[in-house]
Amino acid sequence: MKESFPEDKRVFLRSGSRVNLKYRIIKSADGILLKNSPEHFTITKDLSAGGLCFIATGFLPVGTILEVKIELLDSAQPLVCLAKVLYAQRRENDYYISVHFLDILSKDRIRLEKYVKEE
């Protein structure tokens, strides 16, 4: 399901597609590098070529840097990049965490754009 909100300042089309996601903290919001942080498994709430929103069981502060591995259904190869937490919304038993991509390769951004358009 594609969503477009005229009041948003989003550059990329967004899809409500649920895909598997793995993430781990690379750098805390206060700038501390974390070398061996555990990897967490979850699903996305929505997805675009510029970022995504996912469901987390714990709070992640704004500014936290993550390594994300997005398991798109178009390939067995996950898309891997760094992302920065922009927003964390508390829900009843978990959080919606919104991130934007920091160092995504052009070919991966194109892959995401195509994936979202086809959903």
Polypeptide structure, described:
By secondary structure, the chain is mainly beta. It has a single domain (2-118), classed as predicted glycosyltransferase like domains (Thrombin, subunit H). The chain is built from one helix and eight strands. It has one helix at 106-118; strands spanning 2-3, 14-15, 20-27, 40-48, 51-56, 65-71, 79-90, 95-101. Strand 4 (40-48) and strand 5 (51-56) form a beta hairpin. The protein is globular. The chain starts with a strand and ends with a helix. Mean pLDDT is 89; it is low at 1-7.
Brief summary:
The protein has 119 residues and is mainly beta. The chain has one helix at 106-118, and strands spanning 2-3, 14-15, 20-27, 40-48, 51-56, 65-71, 79-90, 95-101.
Q: What is the CATH architecture term?
A: Beta Barrel
Identify low-pLDDT runs.
1-7
Strand content: 35-45%
For the terminal residues, how far apart are their CA atoms?
6 Å
- Number of DSSP strand runs: 8
Strand order of the largest sheet: 3-4-5-8-7-6
Integer average pLDDT: 89
Describe the biggest sheet?
A: 6 strands, antiparallel, barrel
Q: What CATH first level would be assigned?
A: Mainly Beta
Describe the protein's topology.
Layout: E1 2-3, E2 14-15, E3 20-27, E4 40-48, E5 51-56, E6 65-71, E7 79-90, E8 95-101, H1 106-118
